Amino acid sequence: MDRVHDTRTADGAPAREVVWAPGGHRTVYAEAWLRAHLPGAPAAPGDGRTEDDTYLWDAAGIAGRFPEAGWGAYTAEPTVTAAALDSVMGLGFVLLRGVPVRDRQVLDVARTFGFVRETNYGELFEVRVEADPDNLAFTGARTTPHTDNPYRDPVPTLQLLPCLANAAQGGDSGLVDGFHAAALLRAGDPEAYEVLTRVPVPFAFSDGRTELRAHRRLIDTDPAGRIREIRFNNRSIGTLQQPAGVLDAFHAAYRRFGELLLRSELQLEFRLSPGDCPVFANTRLLHARTAFAESGDRHLQGAYADIDGLASTLAVLRRKEMPTGSTSGSAPR
Ligand code: FE2
What we know:
Radius of gyration: 23 Å
Low-confidence stretches: 324-333
Largest sheet: 8 strands, mixed
Number of helices: 9
Bound molecules: fe (ii) ion
Number of strands: 19
CATH class of the largest domain: Alpha Beta
CATH architecture of the largest domain: 4-Layer Sandwich
CATH topology of the largest domain: Double-stranded beta-helix
């Protein structure tokens, strides 16, 4: 830096101009911006992806604030759109209701806020009884709380799962806040938590034309140690190759976390009707399904997307709500 002097921004606000050395490049900083970014100033909002930026919930905690929006209002009113997307960022999900019940509609839902993540399953995947299933999702069996596709890197961070038919006995849906469960593990068994944030787990999937693998931790934290991503899927976890002591500690911790995730008080249960479309954070919430009678008609059509596109759409909507140029922060949740 060569020198600094007082000036004004283009719109007349007090500012400081810095002349950089070498080269004499000039930069104008508004004083308000400098005050907000002083060392020791209050911490800036995060990127909306860690436990600190979100409301952690259990079944009782979410009961009075179940996030839902009607399709008509969601697509027509930007404030309703923003509130729905804000729920995905803050609570990990929203339930859209009254979504048109038609083939491939899920792709149009994803495109209201972002981009479809195509995978080896295609642009979308079917969840219904199939004659020769290669995945539990295609049977009537119960599925315990899990995140999808931990064998991908990057893993899809959002899932959409609209219901086209649900006349079967059973087949109710469940969601568990994995951030909350991880925080409970940290409070109750810090050693187990530490193991799950450290030991890489080999996740894998293969079929006749695909072989996918990713070695990631069950609980991922950011550089400040805040919970940021959960991966949990006992159908795609591979065999760990670690020293015996690490294996013992990992399996004890894995069991503790698995038991926590099965606690009924953590699981929000609800039943999908045709036209319902849950949109949920696949690296935060775990989803589950009770068993259902395979003779009944049950059909969901799922797709993956990513939360950065959703966060961008929300930020642009907020920019219109707050024309002061602010592009970060959100209402308390
Ligand atoms: Fe799943």
